[in-house]
Every structure is written in C-alpha cells, then in structure tokens.
C-alpha cells in the first residue's frame, strides 16, 4: 500500500533546507585582514602627523642674523698709518619659529667688526625693539659704528702680524673685514609652557675700496 503525503509538507521541508545559513570561513578571514590593515594604516598616519607637527612646531630653528647694508658715512686714512671709518649698518634678525624669541637682559649682545686673525676694529651693542622678535617674523635695526686704527696710539686690538698686513692693505687701498656676532636667546612655545634655547650667529664678509669709498662686497 502506497502512502500519499500531503504536498504542502514536502514543500515546507524543501523550503527549510534552502534557507539554512552557509558558513564561509574565507569571507570571515578577509574581514579580519581588512580590519588589521585599516588599524595599521591609522596608526602610521597618526605617527606621521605627530612627526610632522614636532618637526614644524616644536623643533627649534636657530634665528638668522645678517647685515643688509653697510654705508660709509665718513672715511679718513693716510700712510702714518691712521684709519677712521664711520659706518651706518642695517642689521636684520629673522625668527623662523612658531614661538617668540627673546634675549637675556643680563648679557650684552654685541656685534664686532674684525680684521685679519681676530683683531677687533669696532664693536657695538645689539638691541632689538622690546628685546624680542615675534613668532615667524623679521626685524631690522640701524646701527652706527666707528672703526679706527692709529699706530701711534696702539690700542692692543691689532696683533703684530695683523698690524703689518693692515698697513699694507691701506697702501693698496682695499680692506676686508668680518662682521661677527654670536649670542643666545630663548624660543617660547605654547604660551611659555615650552622654552628652547637658540643660538644666534652671524659671519659676514665686507670688502671696501678705500679710494672710491665704496663697499664692493657684502656677503652673509
């Protein structure tokens, strides 16, 4: 005897088999790999941002100091030898940092004009407005200085070798000097929460034609 089962029972069994979820281990592994890659990329990106921030903002760059112009107001010299030069210089300092730069009030920051092997012909105190330079800004000042040498009134600035060479250069009508300055300051970051030391250095070469009374070379 053949039993007849209801049609709807057979269909229901077939439907139940079709909707069973299928587990795919490869798809789960791909999702895990993507999460790992995204996390690693985020960490690398954050590290790069922090590195750039520290290089641009926190890392202190030494300010630059230079002589922009060297003007001869008066010049007198002869073969005795006697030398006297009055000059007006324009000197600028550039602060490349994101914090302001200030100088120590207890220390006199000076600029010197040097001849030969360290013989100082003139020196002057160097002061900027408010004794500070703003964030990422540049300031310029005018400075008068007198350079002199008188053999009969030897002031000890010129050593014997420099003195002999200086007299020869006077006769030739051409002198070379070095404009030199080296002092320290402080860079203030994040409203004075971070303070870094900075070195201000200048070394400029100056060449003067005595007969024409012209500055032929000024390199900083």
Automatic annotation (TrEMBL):
Q: Which GO terms describe its biological process?
A: defense response to other organism
- Where this protein primarily resides, as one coarse class? membrane
Where does the record place it?
A: Membrane
Q: Where are the transmembrane segments?
A: 35-60
Please give the GO cellular component terms listed in this UniProt entry. plasma membrane
Going by the UniProt record, its keywords in alphabetical order are: Membrane, Transmembrane, Transmembrane helix
Q: Which InterPro entries match?
A: NDR1-like (IPR044839)
What protein am I looking at? Late embryogenesis abundant protein LEA-2 subgroup domain-containing protein
Organism, by scientific name, is: Saponaria officinalis
